[in-house]
Amino acid sequence: MTDVFLTASAEQRIALIRARLGAALSPFTLEIRDDSAQHAGHAGAAAGGHYTVTVVSAAFDGRTRVARHRLVYDALSDAMQRGIHALSINAYTPEEFHSSPR
């Protein structure tokens, strides 16, 4: 994914993130926002994009916040090496997502 990710358009990058997280976590809800434009000129911006993901998955049941984030990072591991500079993660179980205000 790394080489493909680096040469992909903004829309293709989101599609690649969606495919990876979808395959790894079978999410009920998956929202991906490209925040890269907000970080233009930032020292690390040249190293890759900035993204925010909201993932709702049963795979998070019984897992700590850190363990949930590891699952997301594992699914995107090669892109995290080169292509994604920053990733903000909101990881919920279905029950948490439906019962909490956002």
Automatic annotation (TrEMBL):
GO terms for biological process: iron-sulfur cluster assembly. InterPro entries: BolA, BolA-like_sf. Pfam families: BolA (PF01722). Belongs to the BolA/IbaG family. This is BolA protein family transcriptional regulator. It comes from Mycetohabitans endofungorum.
